[in-house]
UniProtKB/TrEMBL annotation:
This is Carbohydrate ABC transporter permease. InterPro entries: MetI-like, MetI-like_sf. The chain crosses the membrane at residues 31-52, 103-127, 134-155, 161-186, 207-230, 269-290. PANTHER family: ABC TRANSPORTER PERMEASE PROTEIN, GLUCOSE IMPORT SYSTEM PERMEASE PROTEIN GLCU. Residues 99-291 form the ABC transmembrane type-1 domain. Belongs to the binding-protein-dependent transport system permease family. Keywords: Membrane, Transmembrane, Transmembrane helix, Transport. It is a multi-pass membrane protein. It is found in: Cell membrane.
């Protein structure tokens, strides 16, 4: 053991080693946590594994019944067929048309709710207009209204506006259903920002839009990423709204996938169906894989504070 210049004993590295070793010991609680995490990972990854290996097998190998076995004759032909040849009802052009329809729906249906939600959250957090709490309560209640309850009124409304069954109609519907949760996210995030920062910007002569664009928006990158992941995932995975409001020419990829699964011309091609399913889920999966750390950072930075 060594001593400092004042004569106080210092803890040596060898003395602290047993403490570190005790922390690394596998306690029953730690074993239970690892077992739960491993079980959860297997629960979600096992179906994905089955889908992937099935999509890479020829049909004669699938008919042997070994769904967990790796492919003996690796083939990417089911993926090509799923993308460009499989029948989605009367049309046999694959799911690529649905992919581009989903892109056309998802991009504006993500940008517009995030932009308006950020403005609403900023106004409700700092400017406090008259009736702000009532407005926030109404928006919050809108986040918990089931989609199915609003379908018929929206059909009548959009039909009266003359845009039912069009791209603007489905974008508007996603905007309506995305606004409440986006406002909630940004309002809670801005509530964690020090109010002195807003007051300093006001003293410097900043107005509503100047403070929002030059002070608040640059600080909002973590929550914007969280909102984008939630909105893209929700819009891309949507089925019922796309089926009802998009129209025949703008059906999203999820609707096309349902048509692929339910369309049979002779033998049911499980490998092509699995390939089409993975292609449909590829965008949300890639988004989570590449933006997962940003999602966690955004949540930690105030997404659930209020």
């Amino acid at each position: 053991m060594t001593h400092s210049a004042t004569g106080q004993p210092l803890v040596s590295a060898s003395a602290s080693a047993p403490a570190r070793q005790r922390k690394r010991l596998l306690t029953p609680a730690r074993i239970g946590i690892y077992a739960f995490l491993l079980s959860a990972a297997l629960f979600f990854l096992l179906p994905l594994y089955v889908m992937l290996v099935t999509s890479l097998k020829p049909m004669d190998e699938i008919q042997l019944g070994s769904i967990f076995a790796l492919p003996s004759n690796l083939t990417f032909e089911p993926w090509r067929q799923a993308w460009s040849e499989v029948c989605t009802g009367a049309s046999c052009e694959g799911v690529r048309a649905g992919f581009w329809n989903s892109v056309a729906i998802t991009v504006p249906s993500t940008i517009l709710p995030i932009l308006l939600g950020a403005i609403n959250g900023y106004a409700l957090s700092f400017w406090k207009p008259r009736g702000a709490n009532l407005l926030f309560g109404i928006l919050l209640a809108g986040a918990f209204i089931p989609v199915q309850v609003m379908i018929y009124p929206l059909v009548r409304l959009l039909a009266g506006m003359g845009i039912f069954g069009s791209l603007p109609a489905i974008v508007l519907v996603h905007l309506v259903f995305g606004m409440p949760i986006m406002t909630l996210l940004f309002r809670n995030y801005y509530a964690s920002v020090p109010h002195e920062l807003f007051q300093a910007a006001r003293i410097d002569g900043g107005g509503f839009w100047r403070i929002f664009l030059y002070v608040m928006l640059p600080m909002s990158v973590p929550i914007i990423v969280v909102a984008a992941i939630m909105q893209v995932t929700g819009v891309w995975n949507d089925y019922i709204l796309g089926l009802v409001f998009a129209g025949r020419d703008n059906l999203p990829m999820t609707v096309q996938l349902n048509n692929v699964i339910n369309t049979t011309t002779g033998e049911r091609l499980y490998n092509v169906n699995m390939a089409a399913t993975i292609l449909t889920a590829l965008v949300p999966l890639a988004l989570y894989f590449f933006s997962g750390r940003w999602f966690v950072r955004g949540i930690a930075a105030g997404a659930v504070k209020g």
